[in-house]
Amino acid sequence: MKRLLLGRPFRSDRLQHTLLPKRIALPVFASDALSSVAYAPDEILLTLSIAGASAYVFSPWVALAVVVVMLTVVASYRQNVHAYPSGGGDYEVATVNLGPKFGIGVASALLVDYVLTVAVSVSSGVANLGSVVPWVATHKIAVAVGAVILLTAVNLRGLRESGTAFAIPTYGFMIVIIGMLLTGFFRIFVLGDDLRAPSAGLTIAAEHDVTGFAMVFLLLRTFSSGAAALTGVEAISNGVPAFKPPKSRNAATTLLLLGTAAVSMLVGIVYLSRLTHLQFMEDPARQIVGGTGEYVQKTVTTQLGETVFGSGSILLYVVAGATALILFLAANTAFNGFPVLGSILAQDRYLPRQLHTRGDRLAFSNGIIFLAVCAVVLIVAFQAEVTRLIQLYIVGVFVSFTLSQSGMIRHWNRLLPRERDPEARRRMHRARAINTFGAFLTGTVLVIVLITKFLLGAWIAIAAMLVIYVVMLAIRSHYDRVARELAPEEGRPMLPARNHAVVLVSKVHLPTLRAVAYAQATRPDTLTAVTVNVDDKDTRAVQAEWERRDVPVPLTVIDSPYREITRPIIDFVKRVRRDSPRDVVTVFIPEYVVGHWWENLLHNQSALRLKGRLLFEPGVMVTSVPWQLASSQTRNLERMDATLIRTPARGPRNRGGHKHGGPPPSAPPAQPGSGTPADSPGVGSDTAERS
Q1: Does Membrane count among this protein's keywords (predicted)?
Q2: Strand ranges (DSSP E) for 99-205?
Q3: Distances (CA, A) of 204 to 208, 216, 307, 506
Q4: Quick one: DSSP state of residue 421?
Q5: Domain-by-domain residue ranges, the chain?
Q6: Are strands 499-504 and 584-593 parallel, antiparallel or unpaired?
């Protein structure tokens, strides 16, 4: 099933083949920022509707302010990708220039933002699709969770494959939206058509009397909502290592393409909305004057598609479908950015080491799965409501924007005194000026967002950042403490004085006799077999069989009046070791190797409990002595047969001179219980050939 869903694993040396050209990198890393133009206009108009329909006159100016910030951020990050091409992005910039604590702060903000990117994008995609497919609107949570699972599976297949799969929908969305805007402007300005949106005739009442300072606050809140269009811009700086060489130049070019496309679509949608008198409300049932409560509000892009192409037109469904699809795929930006950032943080010991390793398809599988789980939790908790999720959204991204640009200012200040080339100094001065303006602008937006959205839900995102910040510090502290504890001392390690071997006996059968033989082969200083007396009749039978077979190892019987097994053995091991701290005790535990999962429920339970307790005892070594049951040997033979069938008839010869595909002619058959590799669990073709 895993191979069917994800494909065959890639060799590590194929990592170079998974790198992305610009045409694929744009949909992979920029789909979030491009798709945000589908819901940022909704948030702008929705927030302005609080003051009534007359407030829509400010929408173009709010959009223009968002465009200024976006272009500034794009220009600033073009400096970042040239200065720090290793892929650390904002985290690396803040860590190197402002210190580790600021770097962790940026990382915690980005991790929260990536999770929210998936939740918001998928929820918005469901909302757009629900505008034309009523069934989706009534099952939006299930559809959103299903979309996250599908995206997870696609990304687990690998970066290059996910980029190729998402390239066509992303470019298709750009073509559809730009084509819709050009058609609308052509009909209005060239043909003179009077285009009016389906919601143009509605009368909207103001929820509050907004004047003076209240109006200023509302405009600031509208701007902070529209600033959601900037989310995803930072993903390119975090993903520079995924680009084909020259990495920095390709990343900077992709950033420029992203900024140009996003700005054009955002301004075009807001401007066409004004020309068609489109209205979008926070609560239609309450805000529409004389409404019956039956009005079903469609998204801004869907209304524009219906206005330009006509109700029921096939192109309307194309617009709705392309918008919903790009919003689903926008989560792919987070699926590529989150795992890379998690890998870097794990390498720096701020996150568990498992996030640093790549999976079968050279993708950071653990990070992808962790992101998907967190996003699903948010979608379910907030009922896939975009308006509720959007309030949490942009706090994290502007925290990282501001700290990153502040770090870049210190970066240029550090390099300028050492640079003597006039041309290089001019470039540095220009870059520092861009980053300074970017830091000021993004810092201002961050303050506005905190003031206007704190009580609306931004405090949840801030609390999540603080929790992640503290957790990462605790993880780093743990890893540092373990490293100090495990650091070897100077000089050669001291050998144990003596080795006391203890073989655990439940019955006198083949696994026990093999464990005794193996313990003898290790040549310990003392060797004792131990059995626990839980039932007198069984214990006498074990003693009698032990004496009848004349096993050359003394059998010690431990009484257990309370019928426990684990505690008496632990106490016995402690007594053996108590007299000499430099002695070690090696406990040999016979275990069954089974071929079916359900057989594990019937065997080895006492062995698992014992191992779990013995591992906490200092100076005690635990050795499992496996005995393969018939079911496990059958399973191993089936695996060997399947492997040999897949092996080509012609291939390189091994050291024995025979070809792959069969055992050497002189190889004797392995006997069960002989200790040969055929008795080992998980035998594969390589092991069979070596034997």
Answers
A1: yes
A2: none
A3: 12, 20, 20, 82
A4: -
A5: 2-16+23-481, 499-651+658-690
A6: parallel
- For the domain 2-16+23-481, what is the CATH code? 1.20.1740.10
Cβ neighbours around 264 below 10 Å, total: 16
Quote the CA–CA distance of 375 and 118 in Å, as a whole number: 6
Q: CB under 8 Å to 590, separation ≥6 — which residues?
A: 503, 504, 506, 511, 512, 514, 515, 607, 625, 627
Whole-prediction pTM value? 0.69
Measured between alpha carbons, how far is residue 390 from residues 40, 136, 284 in Å?
10, 20, 19
Q: State which H helix or E strand residue 321 sits in.
A: helix 314-347
**Rounded to an integer, what distance in angstroms lies between the CA atom of residue 157 and that of residue 163?**
10
DSSP-derived 3-state class of residue 139 = coil
In this structure, what are the phi and psi dihedrals at residue 13, rounded to the nearest 5 degrees? -75, 0
C-alpha torsion angle, residues 394, 395, 401, 407 (rounded to 10):
-170
Distance CA 588, CA 575 (A): 17
Contact 111, 341 (CB under 8 A): yes
What's the distance, Cα to Cα, between the start and end of the chain in Å? Answer: 31
Beta bridge partners of 284: none
Torsion of CA 559, 563, 564, 567, to 10 degrees: -30
Q: Which pLDDT belongs to residue 635?
A: 62
Separation of alpha carbons 78 and 632, rounded Å: 58
Q: Over the stretch 187-214, which tens digit does the pLDDT of each residue have?
A: 999 998 889 988 888 877 776 666 677 7
Stretch (H or E) spanning 593: strand 584-593
- If you ran DSSP here, which 8-state letter would residue 379 be given? H
| Cβ-based neighbours of 335, under 8 Å, separated by 6 or more | 118, 151, 152, 155, 162, 368, 371, 372
Largest CA distance in the chain: 109
* 8 Å CB contact between 272 and 245: no
Other CB atoms within 10 A of residue 421 CB: 9
Strands (E), 29-167: none
Which pLDDT tens digit goes with each residue over 267-317?
Answer: 999 999 999 989 888 777 777 776 656 677 788 888 999 999 988 789 888
